Amino acid sequence: MITSDDKKFYDDNGYILIKNVFTPEEIAFLRKRSIEIFSSDEWKASPHNTDRTLADVYRYFPDIMRVSLTQKVVDIIKGLLGEDDVVLIPETAIMKGFYPTWHKDSTTQEKLGHTFHKDPGFKMIRTGIYFQDNDEYGGGLSVFAGSHKTPDNFMGKFPERTLYTRILNKIIPQKDENSKFLNPLKLKLVDIPSRVGDLVIFNFLTAHRGTLPKSQRIGDVPADKTKIAIFDIFGVNNEYTQQYVDFLKTRPEGIYGFARDRHQSKEFDDYTASLGLKTI
Ligand SMILES: O=C(O)CCC(=O)C(=O)O
Q1: What is the domain range of residue 145?
Q2: 271: closest CA among 82, 61, 46, 129?
């Protein structure tokens, strides 16, 4: 399913868009079900969730797992990693209304002094299934192509988006691509043009952000376009992936409580094993 051209594109650019991995009906189900969970008390199934973020989703919501985590997805990941012995990291999350700013997924650990992700043996990959198109309202992912091979330039203090910077940006548009701070090596900024049904895949070390609405005002996004997505992380079954999972357990943020306090689910264990995935 993954061709050598796909793998080369992913290895060179640090991301890839795989079209039509899911049917529109499957994504409609995931969107409707997520809204139902967030707008009822169901999100409280885990004490570590919030009404905008569900963590360790599959152990609590196997109906979601059976739609978003399929053999097709696992085969794509194994093809891109070039390995059959792959671990599903216990960090599956559904997020609603989130537009995180530029970062690498290794930025936090690097700020805390970890370096294991710099070893060539560190091979982790992230998937995003977006429950809406990436259009004028955002709803998908933006990346700096090739940034998985460059040093992390987000280690310093990040300039905040304030009313002043937004007004300035309206008068003299400052493109992120041209920012010396965000893009010192002048890499290509790609708003990945994902549509409902597509699978967005990016290297754990790729600089990325949630694509902003074109108006730059998140408040302008209509309710039926609210950004909702599910993210998974996979790693080659080796010591570096284990070190990442150990690091997760040390994260102080409330949402990371799931990593220390694992919910048990035989359905999850059996299902992931049937897909040929390891879990830690
Ligand atoms: O919200 C997105 O589109 C990207 C998510 C993200 O950047 C993250 O969770 O690290």
Answers
A1: 4-279
A2: 61
